[in-house]
Amino acid sequence: MVFLLPTLLEARKSRRAALVGIMGTALARDLKDTHSRLYYCKVIRQAWQAEIEGRSGLQALAAQLQCLEVDRREWKDLRSRAALLAARLRAA
Fold first, then answer.
1. Of 31, 51, 56, 74, which residue is the least packed, with the fewest Cβ within 10 Å?
2. How many Å is the Cα radius of gyration of the chain?
3. Mean pLDDT throughout 64-90?
4. What superkingdom does the record give (predicted)?
5. pTM of the complete model
6. Can you state the angle between helices 81-91 and 57-74, rounded to 10 degrees?
7. Nearest to 7 by CA among 46, 54, 44
């Protein structure tokens, strides 16, 4: 999922919404938080918007997702990766 984020910059405008939907669904499924799919779509859209405004939105989101993956491997008692990601995104 992390490696697909830059494809948003190359996607045609007519295909971008579908791509965000696919990515949001994949992220929600990976985090076992499928009822929050629209939230993840919004997070991805906001990261893309920041990126086109000259800020590193997609890069920052990718970094957060990579940190989350490291935490998942090292933190065996982590109850909710989705909650941890949401907290980190709010703090950023």
1. 74
2. 13
3. 92
4. Bacteria
5. 0.90
6. 140
7. 44
Q: Which residue has the tokens 């929600």?
A: 28
Do residues 84 and 38 lie in contact, with contact meaning Cβ atoms separated by under 8 Å? Answer: no
Report CA-CA distances (Å) from 17 to 11, 20, 54, 82.
10, 5, 20, 22
**Residue 30, token pair as written in the block:** 């990976």
- Tally of CB atoms within 10 A around 90: 7
Over residues 9-52, the pLDDT tens digits come to 888 989 999 999 999 999 999 999 999 999 999 999 999 999 99
Alpha carbons 28 and 54: distance in angstroms, whole number: 27
> Which residues contact residue 58 at a Cβ distance below 8 angstroms, ignoring those fewer than 6 apart?
5, 6, 8, 9, 47, 48, 50, 51
Token digits for 32? 């076992």
